[in-house]
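Morning!

This is the sequence you dropped in the shared folder:
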Amino acid sequence: MPRRVALALVLAAVLLPARFRVQVESPPAPPACAPAGRGVPPRHWLGCAADPGDRRPLAADERLVLGLPIDPNTAGARELAHVPGLSRRLAEAVVRSREQDGPFRTADDLRRVRGIGPRRLEQARGALRIEAAP
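The structure's back. Tokens below.
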């Protein structure tokens, strides 16, 4: 029995400091989503929550790729042109209509824009969300 106790004490004295030494000497791992140590991040890099630095709002095409809707009352013609069913010309017409006739209360109000009929509206409906006016 005394041999077993002595063996346990020797193993503890040898192995425990090694375990703590590994914890102290190893550098912290970089965040999983950061391109750490690879030079300048690519132009399309959006970052992640662990990245330091400024945040920028997502562009319209990035929002659509992620499945996030666009508000036609705040978006410009360039952003609205990325919505399925809307061309650049129709997006400009939507912005003109919003400036002349006021904000859209529902998605169906987009039909007041010349060139947007029921079929185009159905194509665009999934990518649009009308936010309530403050």
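Headline: The mean pLDDT is 79.

More detail when I'm at my desk.
O.
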